[in-house]
């Protein structure tokens, strides 16, 4: 019985310092398989298309339901999560590359530390700790909560940074994802109390001003987060903040 | 304004592109449009602009210094980007690339245009209808002027779109879409004005 085969061309890299190279694989087709189950098949039997034994391909994964962001890679030219990339919906050979905007650790595994550093830089949290019980915070209107929920879907996957022409080695732009988080936390009734700190953080070098409005981020975001709306809204907020900083304000 | 140097420079870059450079561009194209009436009307208008009081100060602070800053910082922005329209062929991403290309073309054009007219005037040449008619007697220069002026006009119109975003005037997707139509309308209108003027000298 002849089984249908699926062709893969995978960009491989042995360690962060060595040059990447391409390796082809052919694996038996199974119904409903996704890119991750294909990679698991290669791991089970690491033999390339020429029949030579090779090392298993390294990649990262977590939730397998497109909410953790760990398995992001460039699939047929577009950055996306490999867990929701169904093999039957992809043109063959399926080309897998790491998101090279980030440092490549090995094969398809990348280091997204810069995104987590950026979240720390913009203070993407709500400080609620005190030396005594501060009591309940202000209530959030339900309609606003529903709106904010969309922004909270960000999984720090890095697809928007990969798609952005201004996130690269020539620039220190933190990218769209952490900016949108500033909008999320500034919209929260308790988070709003530290609004100015976050706005000043994104007015620093590598922040909001580095956006060039190519709007690739909003086209690429797997969660459909209105990233460019967030950026424009923050442009408005920082316009006011800049004047307040310069001229002073009676609040 | 506080914030970092990048933030300040980027905002100033955006502002200067519209005020005063954009306003000057529109004024310049409108005054030149007198050429479509006749040579005398053009010369009268050019002479009026030429004999404005405090001309050298107006030129320096409304034209030279803003354009110099906008050009230098614009080149810095341009070469920072790693364009990727082949992979992401979305409309706005293409406009992003075209904005950078037209910016560089406009800079080359303006450098040549200032040399050929304003610098020559400083050397004693008279700026009038005949000077332009002479320059545009070569078909190569007609093509050069068409490309240069249309680049400048596009760069201004699309720059107006990003000015509205950068200062937070257009936030929602719908407002940005409407602003795209309006600014492209500005491009078409100014393109008609400038092409008519160029052909008036031929």
Automatic annotation (TrEMBL), chain A:
Family named by the database record: Belongs to the succinate dehydrogenase/fumarate reductase iron-sulfur protein family.
PROSITE patterns (alphabetical): 4FE4S_FER_1, 4FE4S_FER_2
Pfam family name, one: Fer4_8
Cofactor names: [2Fe-2S] cluster; [3Fe-4S] cluster; [4Fe-4S] cluster
Protein name per its UniProtKB record: succinate dehydrogenase
Matching NCBIfam families: dhsB, PRK08640.1
Provenance organism: Fictibacillus norfolkensis
Domain 4Fe-4S ferredoxin-type: 145-173
UniProt keyword list: 2Fe-2S, 3Fe-4S, 4Fe-4S, Iron, Iron-sulfur, Metal-binding, Oxidoreductase, Tricarboxylic acid cycle
EC number(s) per entry: 1.3.5.1
Automatic annotation (TrEMBL), chain B:
InterPro entries with a match to the protein in the record: Cytochrome_b-558, SQR/QFR_C/D, Succ_DH_cyt_b558_Firmicute, SuccDH_FuR_B_TM-su
Segments crossing the lipid bilayer: 12-34, 54-76, 97-115, 135-157, 178-199
Lineage: Bacteria, Bacillati, Bacillota, Bacilli, Bacillales
Subcellular location per the Swiss-Prot or TrEMBL entry: Membrane
Keyword annotations from UniProtKB, A to Z: Heme, Iron, Membrane, Metal-binding, Transmembrane, Transmembrane helix
Pfam families xref list: Sdh_cyt
Keyword Ribosomal protein applies: no
Transmembrane helix among keywords: yes
Protein name: Succinate dehydrogenase cytochrome b558 subunit
Organism name: Fictibacillus norfolkensis
Signal peptide (UniProt feature, chain positions): none
């Amino acid at each position: 019985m002849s089984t249908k085969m699926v062709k893969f061309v995978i960009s491989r890299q042995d360690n962060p310092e060595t040059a990447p190279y391409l390796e082809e694989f052919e694996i038996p087709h199974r119904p409903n398989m996704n890119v991750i189950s294909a990679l698991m098949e290669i791991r089970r039997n690491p033999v390339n298309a020429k029949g030579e034994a090779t090392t298993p391909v390294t990649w990262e994964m977590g939730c397998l339901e497109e909410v953790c962001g760990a398995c992001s890679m460039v699939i047929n030219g577009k950055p996306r999560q490999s867990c929701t990339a169904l093999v039957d919906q992809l043109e063959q050979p399926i080309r897998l590359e790491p998101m090279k905007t980030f440092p490549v650790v090995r094969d398809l595994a990348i280091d997204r530390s810069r995104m987590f550093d950026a979240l720390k830089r913009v203070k993407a949290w709500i400080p609620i700790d005190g030396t005594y019980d501060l009591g309940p915070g202000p209530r959030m209107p339900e309609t606003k909560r529903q709106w904010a929920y969309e922004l909270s879907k960000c999984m720090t996957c890095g697809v928007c940074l990969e798609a952005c022409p201004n996130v690269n080695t020539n620039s220190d732009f933190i990218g769209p994802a952490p900016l949108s988080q500033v909008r999320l936390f500034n919209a929260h009734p308790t988070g709003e109390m530290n609004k100015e700190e976050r706005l000043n953080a994104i007015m620093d070098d590598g922040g909001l001003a580095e956006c060039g409005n190519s709007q690739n981020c909003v086209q690429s975001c797997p969660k459909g987060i209105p990233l460019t709306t967030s950026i424009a809204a923050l442009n408005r907020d920082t316009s006011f903040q800049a004047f307040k900083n310069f001229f002073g304000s009676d609040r | 304004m506080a914030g970092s140097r990048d933030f300040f420079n980027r905002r100033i870059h955006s502002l200067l592109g519209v005020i005063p450079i954009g306003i000057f561009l529109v004024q310049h194209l409108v005054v030149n449009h007198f050429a479509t009436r006749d040579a005398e009307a053009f010369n009268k208008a050019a002479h009026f602009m030429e004999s404005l009081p405090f001309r050298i100060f107006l030129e320096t602070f409304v034209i030279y210094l803003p354009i110099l800053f906008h050009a230098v910082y614009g080149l810095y922005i341009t070469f920072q980007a790693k364009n990727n329209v082949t992979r992401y062929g979305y409309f706005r991403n293409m406009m992003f690339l075209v904005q950078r290309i037209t910016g560089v073309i406009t800079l080359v054009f303006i450098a040549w245009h200032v040399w050929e007219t304003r610098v020559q005037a400083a050397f004693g040449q008279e700026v009038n209808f005949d000077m332009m008619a002479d320059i545009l007697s070569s078909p190569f220069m007609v093509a050069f002027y068409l490309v240069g002026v249309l680049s400048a006009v596009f760069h201004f119109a699309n720059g107006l779109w990003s000015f509205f975003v950068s200062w937070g005037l257009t936030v929602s997707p719908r407002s940005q879409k409407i602003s795209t139509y309006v600014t492209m309308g500005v491009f078409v209108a100014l393109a008609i004005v400038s092409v008519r003027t160029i052909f008036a000298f031929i």
